[in-house]
Design a protein that fits this description.
The chain has 425 residues and is α+β, with helices and mostly antiparallel strands. The chain has ten helices and 14 strands.
């Protein structure tokens, strides 16, 4: 538990509650009796204090007057350590109610039945709009990842860790000092984050990764199935070298993961934007789609889905679970089957999460059954033992060798024959 803290605006003590989260910079605590939370930094600096004061003076404004699908956990007050110096150690912010983190809503196993494809698309659109509004005000997220974004029950998003944003105020740039490898653009590798300015292009890369996780069931875009010798390149090396398994000229031995939804099931414009983000944008970061481009494309995607009947999420979840089990079993047979390149077919987005997998699973099952049938040795027919007829007659006065009971019909015929033979004329 941190030492006694005070609110700067009122000088009142901060009644800290339980710890509810944290990261590499500090911990987040609830405030008893208040709809607030407090983030306390472990190693506060003078630059952090100046940055927080600049953020308090210039909060971001929404793009319009209508309710938006995004908010920011922006600082509302500074938090001081009680004592003579009263050093700034953190800040307070409004408590944000949410349903999922972005990491939870991406994974089918950790989200509820109300999360369907439209919910995921709306979440991505709101996230793109939130990043777009920051870029318009000259603010960069810097450390955009699946852990610092939470999602409400209506797909509204809240971007956390705003104290790590890169802002410019008072003639200087307050940089983002942290970052995650999985969301770091190629041009930022090999540099120290506190000494490097972030750009809109680096934010665009992280946003594209977040949207890919939403649409591809938490599978990272650079996650591969390596089939060559040795261990292969790590995720960081694949991002650096641009080894994207869906590229038009992808490198050998790096295939898409078998559990990832098929790439061709996405709409053509969405596929084209992902190619710009991870393929063309690898060589030229300016070709990566902007947040505004993503917001427009995802809005059209959601509009297209609204004209189609929504499948039952509960039944869809059950079908996904069964198909995943079968695909996991069939994946062990991939090394014994010849590689088949399927033609690219664009299907309706409403069926992309189960119909395509059902067809692939059914075809693989038939191939497996045929292979097992051909590999099985021919069965030699067994010799059927000779069965004597139940009408066979044993010599008179001797019971049958099998000691089986004589049928009643045969006994009646024998009595009648005896009666006819003994009858005198």
């Amino acid at each position: 538990m941190p030492p006694s803290l005070l609110f700067q605006s009122t000088g009142a003590p901060v009644p800290l509650g339980s710890r509810i989260g944290g990261g590499g910079e500090g911990d987040v605590f609830s405030v008893r009796g208040r709809d607030l939370v407090v983030k306390v930094h472990r190693s506060p600096t003078r630059d952090l204090e100046e940055k927080l004061r600049a953020m308090l003076a210039t909060p971001p404004k929404p793009a319009g007057v209508l309710p938006q699908g995004y908010v920011y956990a922006w600082p509302t007050d500074l938090v001081l350590r009680a004592g003579r110096t009263r050093k700034v150690v953190g800040f307070s912010m409004t408590k944000v109610p949410f349903r999922y983190t972005l990491a939870q809503v991406c994974r089918p196993s950790s989200r509820g039945p109300e999360v369907d494809e439209r919910f995921l698309i709306r979440t991505g659109r709101n996230l793109a709009l939130g990043v777009l509004n920051l870029h318009r005000t000259g603010v960069l997220v810097g450390d955009l990842n699946e852990s610092n974004v939470v999602v409400g029950p209506t797909a509204a998003v809240t971007i956390l860790d705003t104290d790590s944003f890169q802002i410019r105020a008072n003639g200087r740039t307050f940089r983002c000092p942290v970052g995650k490898v999985e969301f770091t653009a190629r041009e930022l590798f090999g540099v120290t984050f506190p000494d490097q300015d972030r750009t809109t292009e680096s934010d665009n890369f992280a946003l594209a990764v977040c949207l890919w996780l939403l649409l591809m069931e938490a599978n990272h875009p650079f996650a591969c199935r390596y089939t060559g010798p040795g261990a292969g390149a790590t995720l960081k090396e694949r991002i650096q070298q641009g080894i994207w398994p869906y590229a038009s000229r992808r490198q050998a031995n790096y295939d898409p993961r078998p559990m990832t939804p098929p790439f061709h099931s996405l709409p053509p414009d969405i596929r084209s934007m992902f190619r710009d983000a991870f393929e063309a944008g690898h060589h030229d970061p300016t070709k990566r789609p902007s947040p505004g481009d993503w917001a427009l494309a995802l809005a059209e995607y959601e509009k297209h889905l609204s004209t189609q009947p929504a499948p039952s999420p509960r039944h869809l979840q059950r079908a996904r679970t069964v198909l995943r089990r079968w695909l996991a079993r069939l994946d062990t047979l991939r090394g014994f089957m010849p590689a088949v390149r399927m033609p690219t077919v664009t299907v309706s987005p409403a069926f992309r999460t189960w119909a395509g997998r059902a067809a692939i699973g059914g075809g693989a099952s038939l191939l497996t059954l045929a292979a097992v049938t051909l590999a099985r040795e021919p069965r030699v027919p067994e010799r059927v033992p000779e069965v004597r007829s139940h009408l066979s007659v044993s010599p008179r006065g001797q019971p049958p060798k099998t000691a089986e009971r004589t049928p009643r019909l045969w006994e009646d015929l024998r009595r009648k024959s005896s009666a006819l033979a003994t009858k005198t004329p």
